[in-house]
Amino acid sequence: MISKFFDKLSRNFIELLGDKDDFNVIIIAKNEKSFIAHSNVLKCRSPYFRKELKNIIPNENNIKTITKPNISDEIFNVILKYIYGGIIDLENVETKFIFDIMVTANEFEIEELTKKLENDLIETKSSWLKSHFSLVYRSIFSGNGNNFKDLEKFCNDIVAKYPNLIFDSEDFTSLQESAMVSLLKRDDLQLEEVIIWEYIIKWGISQNPTLPVDLKEWTNENFTTLKTTLQQCLPLIRYFHIPGIDVLNKVKPYKKILDKQLWDDLKKYLIAPNQQVFSTILPPRTILVQELPTRTTELTNPFSTIITYEHVAEISSWIDRKSSTYSLTSIPYEFQLIFRGSINGFVPQTFWDICHGHSSTVVIMKVKGTEEILGGYNPLSWDANTDGSWRKTNDSFIFSLKNNNLQNSILSRVKIRDNAILNFTKPGQVYYGPYFGYNLCMYSSSSNFTLDNGCFCNYNIDHYEKHIRTITDNFSIVDYEVFKVIKTQTLYNS
Question: What are the structural domains of the chain?
Answer without folding.
Answer: 6-126+134-143 (3.30.710.10), 164-271 (1.25.40), 295-487 (no CATH)
